[in-house]
Structures are given as C-alpha cells and as structure tokens.
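Hey team,

Filing this mostly as a record. A colleague (T.K.) asked me to run one chain through the structure pipeline before their review meeting, and I want the input and output archived in the tracker in case anyone asks later how it was produced. No errors, nothing strange. Just documentation.

Input sequence:
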Amino acid sequence: MEKAMTLLQQAAETNHDFKWYIGNLYEIQGEREKAILEYDYVYQQDTIVYAYYNERIQELENNPDQLLTELYYKDRRKRTLLLLKGVDAEATDTEIGGFEIERK
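Output structure:
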C-alpha cells in the first residue's frame, strides 16, 4: 500500500486526476478526512468536470462508515461530442452545414 501511495503521489504531481486514487487509498486505510482533502483539492480546480469528486465527498460526509475497500476506476474519457459539419463551397463564412452528437 505504501508503494502504491508513493507512485500515485508522484503521478498526481503531473496530473491531479490521480488524486482520486490517492483519496481511494486513504479510504481503504480508514483515513476518511484525508480522502476528503484529496477529493476536495481536485473538485476546487473545476467544479463541473470533477463533480463526481464532490459527490464522493457528500457520500463520505453523509455515511462516514461507508469507506471504499478497493480502488474505484473512473473513466472520464467517455464524453458527448458535438461535431460540426462543413458546408459546400457556395456557403458564407459563418454558415454551418449541420451537426451531429457522438458519444465516446
């Protein structure tokens, strides 16, 4: 567990998304307050993208005994994209040919 924490802390220096897993490890170790601090740090960086961090904080505050027992992988790469389509050569510069929604 100590080695995992060290590696995650190093990774979080480059990408703070790894603080999610640091928080998970603190939960596994029974360190609820430390987990909340990790989650809150990232949530404060972007309250929209990282809304699930705040959801976890609320869960921990409402149910302090419901700590995680394993790392919980979150795939933030799943997104909804709005793809703008081009128009033909006769269109004005501000004209959009259309759009479609794509889920990835």
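Quick notes for T.K.: The chain has a mean pLDDT of 82. Strands lie at 80-85, 98-103.
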